[in-house]
Each structure stands twice: as C-alpha cells, then as structure tokens.
Write a structure and sequence with these properties.
This protein has about 240 residues and is mainly beta. The chain has one helix and eleven strands, in the order H-E-E-E-E-E-E-E-E-E-E-E.
C-alpha cells in the first residue's frame, strides 16, 4: 500500500504535468488586446508652488493625495497592432497659505487632475507566454485649481508620448506586466506654468477569475504616484 507521502508526491506530479501541458501546446499567449478597464485610482501628488498675484501678497500651496476614477480600453485590429487609450480624473487635496502685509490666512481645498491618452500599439510574442508591447500616443494633462486669492496655478498641455513593456502569462488565469512610459507632460511645474518631459515606471498583476473577466492592481511611480485597482472585461484573442 502506498503511504501518504507517495500519494501526495504523485498528486503534485500530476498537477505539475497538467499545468505544463497547456504551455507546451499553446502557440500564443492567452492575453487579449481587445478589452475595457474600469479603474479606481489612489494618487500621491507631492508638489509645492508659489505665486504673487499682487505686489506684497504671496500664495503658497502644497498638494498631497486624492482619489479618482478612470476608464481604459484597447482594440486589436490585426494580429500585431491595436488602438488603445485612457481617461483618468482625480480630486486631489491641497493646503495653502496667503501672506500679505496685514494678515496671514490658511486655506484648504481640492483640485482636479485629469489625464488622457490615445495611442497605437504594436505587440510581439516571445515564445508562448511573454509579449513585448510598444505604443506611440497623444497625451494631455490638466491641473485645475481655481483660485484662493487671485493666483492661477492651473496648467494644461498636450504632446506625443511613448510606452514600452512586457506582459507575462505564466499560467492561464494570471498576468504580470511591467512598462516604462515617456511623457511630454510628466513633470508639472505649477509655479512656472509649464510641463517638463519625463519618465515613469509601472508594474502590476492581474487575475482572470473568469475567462474574460479579471481584476488587477498596479502601481506607477513618477512625478505623480498612482496605485490603480481595475476590473477588466476582455473580449478574447481577437482578431482570430
């Protein structure tokens, strides 16, 4: 009679074989490039800025953190190319100090941080589990503050950006991804009213608990740090 350790070891071998067969038989990843994401955003925006709207008066602000929502999508129009894009809107907290010759006032408030992107992407498969992706896109970013005492910290600009990365499908239900992003509107200088180009890096994980439905979490580190929790509705490996 087989002992428990032998039975357990045999079960582990059967499980390992069953897991390995799909990867050997597959000719492509199970990752789709036609999908729709709904996102919840947790932002950290650590900035300070100063302006003097009138002589003798100074307005200082310091931004902190906030929440937002977003939607992103992609549509594969050939075996290697796809269209993609996103729209993200967040409400961020800030505190301000207005200093004048006669008084010093403190204020708190929120501002709107909005970003969007439209891109065309290229995908190349390395083996049957790893995809390389590259995108060229048109991006916009908006900081919308309003005003405390006549100052104007609002900022808006657009430009061409790029993104490269990898999507790894180690087993059918799971995806790991890593991307690097170049943006012409990455770094916001609120005092001088202009953006500087820069880069950010993002990494994340997604679990498809149904064949075409998954949840994901990722973190992007850059001028603005964003942690995103998303629900993905995938539409299979289109086109066939």
């Amino acid at each position: 009679m087989e002992n428990k350790k032998t039975v357990t070891a045999r079960r582990l071998l059967v499980w390992a074989f069953a897991a390995a067969v799909p990867s050997v038989a597959a000719q492509a990843t199970d990752l789709s490039y036609t999908y729709l994401d709904f996102q919840s955003l947790d932002n950290t925006v650590e900035k300070t800025a100063q302006q003097s709207p009138v002589p003798g008066e100074t307005v200082n602000i310091q931004t902190s953190s906030g929440k937002g929502i977003g939607v992103a999508g992609s549509y594969a129009f050939s075996e290697r190319f796809y269209f993609g894009g996103y729209y993200k809107s967040s409400v961020i907290n800030y505190s301000g100090v207005v200093t004048s010759p006669i008084a010093t006032d403190h204020a708190t408030g929120t501002f709107d941080l909005v970003s969007s992107n439209l891109a065309i992407g290229y995908m190349h498969k390395f083996g049957d589990r790893l995809d390389f992706v590259a995108e060229l896109g048109y991006e916009s970013a908006v900081y919308d503050f309003g005003s405390i005492a006549g100052e104007n910290f609002d900022l808006k600009d657009t430009g061409a950006g790029a993104r490269v990365g990898f999507r790894w499908n180690p087993r059918r239900p799971f995806e790991l991804f890593l991307t690097g992003h170049y943006s012409p509107v990455e770094k916001a200088d609120l005092s001088k009213h202009h953006y500087e180009s820069g880069t950010s890096v993002a990494a994340g994980f997604r679990w498809y608990f149904f064949e075409n439905l998954g949840v994901g979490i990722d973190h992007e580190s850059g001028d603005v740090d964003v942690t995103t929790i998303s629900m993905r509705f995938s539409f299979g490996n289109l086109p066939l």
